[in-house]
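pasting input
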Amino acid sequence: MIMSEFPPPQNELSNTVSIKQVLIVGGTHGNELTGIHTIKRFEQHPALIHRPSFDTSTVIGNPHATKDVTRYINKDLNRCFDASSWGPSSMSIYEMTRAKTLMEQYGPHSKQPIDLVIDLHSTTSNAGLMLILDHLDPFTLRLAAALQVKAPKVKIYSASRSGREHDSLRALGRYRLGIEVGPIAHGTLHADLFQKTQTLIQQVLDYVEQHNTILSLTNPTSPQSPTPKVLTVYQYIGTIDYPKNQHGDIIAMIHPQRQFRDYEAVNPGDPMFLTFDGETIGYTGKTPIHPIFINEAAYYEKGIAMSLTEKKQITLDCSSHSSL
Amino acid sequence: MIMSEFPPPQNELSNTVSIKQVLIVGGTHGNELTGIHTIKRFEQHPALIHRPSFDTSTVIGNPHATKDVTRYINKDLNRCFDASSWGPSSMSIYEMTRAKTLMEQYGPHSKQPIDLVIDLHSTTSNAGLMLILDHLDPFTLRLAAALQVKAPKVKIYSASRSGREHDSLRALGRYRLGIEVGPIAHGTLHADLFQKTQTLIQQVLDYVEQHNTILSLTNPTSPQSPTPKVLTVYQYIGTIDYPKNQHGDIIAMIHPQRQFRDYEAVNPGDPMFLTFDGETIGYTGKTPIHPIFINEAAYYEKGIAMSLTEKKQITLDCSSHSSL
């Protein structure tokens, strides 16, 4: 796998970059209605996402799948952004052509490259309000920290090492933020999570506005705001599939003690699955893990019963100017 | 709409009919995994559904949709069983041909017509464990009453007047029982509801066995079992669509005070929907209703935000022999 065309933001450098172009994407998966209707609402009320110091665009990632209320037509769009896979033969795959089109319109070689992309998703797992980060650079970490101050229940997931840094739609932007909310059945809306998603986006835009404003000062200083010094991050370490028989058919379900218990510690021996015949299958690892995306509908076909994370503490340098 | 080829069972007569052929169906909708894996398990362990006094068959209703983990290929199979719609042109629709095939194999003119069909479904609404009845004949009502004694949380929904009596897969059988469990996101399994579904089916088969056994006695008498004399039934009276704009796009979501609150009374003025802009839309009817199938994913395209029911009490004649 080749690296993204964007180099990962470097250390403190990223904190001094002014954000000029923001792109908000819904409908990267066409059956995740929260993001789709969020985009429609913003397009009807552009004042909601207008901020003086930068431009904000909106787009439906996968319009054909959105029309059909299905995750994708030929291939998951959120795995199509690795440019090395765009051979002539792949252009018969709708999502491959769509990814190429989006990259040409918004990517690093476009007229107005995207500084920050916000990609909206929903999940059948109990994600609550999750921020998906690809890079743990200072700008992104401080953005996440600021959001967690506003909404303490927000969880932070680091997807670096998962491969999504290179092939997901987020590869469109230099800085990236995935917003994942759940549990929501695909093809449905939940009013509570819809409103929380919209609020979170407002808070992201407000943060970026403040970041730009402080940067523009001659002598930027750190405002006295309650940014946490230590962030809790769930770091991707792998995935685990459902138990299957020799034909590849699943033989077990998520154990009732795991269902909807995303982010919670699972210790050696704890229940993981329950077979169709009622037998419990325990966790055989030696160190605690914190599963997320437990029982995500779209991951059955990917062979993922849950994603495994390590719960980490990351210390922020709070002396820098962009903390809120 | 023509009537089903089966006349509705008549009053007390139905209680004296011996049940010889039972058919259990899963995968009438190909993304409702609970029923599909229930059928697979029964096919692997036929002893689970064997009873001495009758034959039990199993079938996947929509095998193509099951393979694709989608509700249907061309048309909802559960709306294809009205024989008057089977013109030559409709035979290009996969589900129409499938319905015809199933009717020829199991219907009233088949070699072994089905006396009782049990059709397994799951829903994103908070159905809990729901029995769907088409006919409120004595046999069916006493079966429902017996199940409610075993599992008091089981709810009884009368779908008569909804049209499903004639066009749903249940039209295959003289007696019909739909089992609807939720909330489950389509394309997923929940271990708890999977096990409860299997237990419920066992109880249905046990009831039928006892029914047949008592019928075969020379002088059947009513066993002294705690059958309730009054059943609570949620009777279908209609459906309500999402509020929409002039383009047919929805402009509101299920109100948070309605979400997951199936079966509960809604009184005039109570919140029903929340618009994307945050305004509450209240119930404008004059009499209380009890909505079910609230926020079912597959009903967005059908223009159904929820089904409306009237909560009724039905008095059973407990002197007859088939009570458990």
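fyi The first strand of chain B starts at residue 21 and ends at 26.
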